[in-house]
Specification:
The protein has about 280 residues and is of the alpha/beta class. The chain has seven helices and eight strands, in the order E-H-E-H-E-H-E-H-E-H-E-E-H-E-H. The protein binds manganese (II) ion (2 copies). One manganese (II) ion (MN) binds next to loops.
Length: about 280
Amino acid sequence: MESLADLKPGVVAVLGLPTDENSTFMHGPAQAPPRIREALYSGSANLCAENGIDLGADPRWRDLGDLELSGGSAAFEQIEETIARLLDRDLYVLSLGGDHAITYPILRAYARKYGPLNVLHLDAHPDLYDEYEGNRYSHACPFARIMEEKLAKRLVQVGIRTINPHQSAQARRFGVEIVEMHHWQPGFQPRFDGPLYLSLDLDVLDPAFAPGVSHHEPGGFSTRQVLQLIHSLRAPLVGADIVEFNPKRDLVSITAMVAAKFLKEIAARMIDSCQ
Ligand code: MN
Ligand code: MN
């Protein structure tokens, strides 16, 4: 990770969190952050976001590189403490996973800074399992831990299409607001009061748009539908993560480019909404 010495408050800091040891079905997302940067800087596209912000020239964001992570529970502590340190400097953090397990330690750090905040979670899966294959920190469980610790004031999940009775009961227990994929309508715009955190699991997209994910779940969003949702957010977007890109499953780097596109558009929305 780069030095923070000359970082001014208010800057959007992009940080890679290369870990997938809490993945269940297959590994690969630990290799994602460098592949996303490769796509971002490949020269096949410019660095302008659709709101006109040119990330190629704008000093209001910075790529800090990857955090070097140890294994096991120490990695969660490293993530929480590093994000907390960035938030102490009044930075806004856009994390690149890694698998979805990282969102729990990230939101622990966010709650220290902001108190419980609004969380918009885009995913094919609710990730609300109490435990999965004996692991309470599995990438199938982060939002159960987040809700138990009351790290989110509101959790709104969109794009879900794999809910089962256990996770349905968990959602009721925690008061999670779920917009299942089959109920979603074009033009849907969630409204939030106060700071917002966005957690974007790339498998919310239909696998036709993003084949580079571990869990192919057909019947999802198009890239444009997710972009419209991101562009429609009006609350101050103080943090975000892009998780579950698995380069081992990608085809012609298309998912890497989709992740790079989301990086640009989310960073630009963060810059625009927080200043
Ligand atoms: Mn997920
Ligand atoms: Mn998922």
